[in-house]
Amino acid sequence: MKPLPNLNNSLLLRTDFSDDAAWVSLCEAVQQPNEQGFKAHVVCISDSAYEGLALEQLIALAPKGDQCGHHAVAFIADVTTFFDAEQPVLVVDLNEQPGRTFRVIPRELWGVENNLSIANMDYDDFAKSADADGVFRGFPQV
Q1: For residue 28, what is the enclosing H or E element?
Q2: What is this structure's pTM?
Q3: Domains and CATH numbers, the chain
Q4: 57 pLDDT exceeds 70?
Q5: With CB atoms counted within 10 Å of each terminal CB, which end of the chain scores lower, N or C?
């Protein structure tokens, strides 16, 4: 399996190829600016070489240490993403505790990506705020 691309943006990596239209829709949704103009800075990677990629394989392919850069997490569009109506994207920690996960709905992916890429917030800030089903749907409104 080939290594992950070394890009300046975070990756949204497709590992399920069952629905091309859903993939296109997902990429458009995560890159759509919110009401304040914030959007996720992700590169959508659709390469059949990553089809069925297991969590352990992803961790092995990810850059390590100082090479990690924006790859501190990976966003994965897997089978669950495409078969769940909310299209929850898998967020995988590749740096601090490689392999831990939570999911995020597309309209909230910008906050996870933006804040983690500049170290404004920690992975735990989002993971601990996920609902009981493990999906982050945003922080509660006060």
Answers
A1: helix 20-30
A2: 0.91
A3: 10-136 (3.40.50.800)
A4: yes
A5: C
